[in-house]
Amino acid sequence: MATAVNRRLAPGHLRLALLPAQRTSFAGPLESSCEIANCQMHMNSLKPILPKKQKTPSFQLSASGHWSTWPAFASGQTVLKSHKPCCAPGERMSSNKQALLTIPKPRYLEQLESYLRKELQYLDLTKRNSQELRLQPYREIFEFFIDNFKTYKPLLSAIKNEYEATLAHQKETIHALEPLKAMVATVSEECSQQILALQEKEKVEINMLKQEKQHLLKFIDNMKEEKSSLQTQVEHLQTSVAEEYARYLNEYGARKLLLAKLNDMHNEQLNMKRHQVQDVKGEDVVKLTLALKIARQDLTKAQLKLNAMIADYGDVVPRRDFESLEKKYSDLQQEMETLRKDFDQLRKEYQTLLEIQRETAEERDNFFTELQQAQRSCTPRPNWAKCSEVIPGGADRWGCLAEGKTSDQLVDVLLEEIGTGLLQEMNVFPGWGKGDKVPVYLRHEGEVKNKKLTKKDVVSILKDIWKQKIALEQQTGKRPVLPEFFLSYLQKKYGDTSAMEWSYTLYENMRLCPSNHVMSSFYDILTGKVGEEQYHIQNQLISNLQKELAACDPSNSGSLTSEQFRMAMREAFPLKRQDSIQELIDASRYKLDCTEELIDYKSLFKEDEEGNPEPFVAKIRSQYIREKQEYLRELRNNLGDLIEVNAEDLKAAFCTIDPDIDDQTLDTYVGLAYQVGREQTDQEVVPVDTALERLLAGDVRRVGPAAREESKTDCVEE
User: Fold this and answer.
1) Long-range contacts of range 594-597, CB-CB < 8 Å, 24 or more positions apart?
2) How many domains does the chain have?
3) What pLDDT does 278 receive?
């Protein structure tokens, strides 16, 4: 009986586990068909509760009047039909499972699921409260179950109320936290502003402390110089005092000797007088008087001689001291000469430093002025990431296109993408006419059909044109003009009728794609902006480098160490500066980690399907253009303020900036500047800007090393 009750009470997938006591209590009331009819009437009365836009699904009763409790009802019926008293339990279970799989889903359950799916389809899930809207159909279904199942209504209502109370509490908590979130954002912004203000204040204090440090360092240097000067003066005074002390000591000794001699002479006179007094009585007075007179005369002569010697030699020093002083004087003289030479050298260096400081100050003022102008005229940096929304390929392709490019280059890339997109939409091109000023490969009247080629197709055609042109040059020994060969190639390959269509299509694609090297170089040579020699010489430089790298790799492994790679670069480009060589090495290691030693040099010369080279080859070509511009800039500076220049002045300027240039190369450069034969260059005078523009379009390179590069190398070696 309990099983039958459960089958009647469980519509759809709602399966509630009841205790045995509950099942027994519910069995009695639901067995009567009266209550079943009342329950069905009550459920029919609850149908208008749901929204009016859809009908509420109705209950479906089984054939015997019981509730359809699929799959429980089907399982019970199957057991009653196939029950055999003598069969084993395992066999009964397998038969039940087979019957369960064959019974279809009740119609009422299908109607409920269909109703839920339709309600969910009608919802607009793009709104902010989409989750609440999505929850509403599930609430309606749940309320329907609560209202129709009286037995479970208290428990289901309690469950629903608890869930609703919890959701309301969570909403109130979220609403209460919204002001706190705004306050946190405000406090965060205020703290950021305070941090920035403190950083600015610290910057000012740091600058003041740096200035004070520089001032104190200068003061310390001055004090050191003053101390050194005072030390030199003290040493000089000590030497003078020692010399004076020695001189006075010698004079003191000489005076003591003189006094001793005078005392001896005085004592001798006293003794003589004493002897004379004793011998007066026995001596002759005349004789004594004469002797006294003679003695007085001798004393007078000695006194005069002594005075003369004192007068003549009173300031005389001993020879030993004189020689010592003379040697010291010669040493000081040599030291003074050395110091004078050092002083002259320091003075020259000081004048040089003053000049450098003046130039640096002027450069700093110019930079400061440019900075102020840039700050006044600059605009905020655009958000280039927005371009990924309109560029075909999305963010990935835009990331590849924008990698390592400046804002100016990104504008070119964006214009190129826009131009190529518009070009694909055009069906025809307007003809340029057949005038003499129109290039031979564009002379056509009327509209021309657009072939709508991709970059890959254009690059493939241009490479084939170069290949055919180089082969023709090798056969005939002459170099045909590119515009005429371009037209003849298209006529030969596509016919005279379609040649102009291909010519216009290729021309427009080349014109709109300056970032592609194959297309831009072909376009510049085709329009005469650049000489064809540049294309061939760049390819020759790359070919020579490949040969040098292969020569350093006898095992043909395809990899070289950094030192071997540097040596090969130096052999291939002997005139490049150290910083240029380092730029190429850095470009060769852009895909490697810092710890990797070997460089895969063969992969550096690969191209993608659109003809774009690796950064290493692009760096070689950009350095070629930069070195030529620097070479011509030196030539312009050497010409000075000249407005027009003749051939002799131009030759002299080339020889000045490039002493190793030979006569043949010099004549080639001069002929390129004047665009005339060698016999007419002496009479030609052209503006300097025109000559430099023509040289820039041709193949002009330095023949020997730069003078300033040699001086820098010498200084480094010293």
Assistant:
1) 597/561, 597/562
2) 2
3) 60
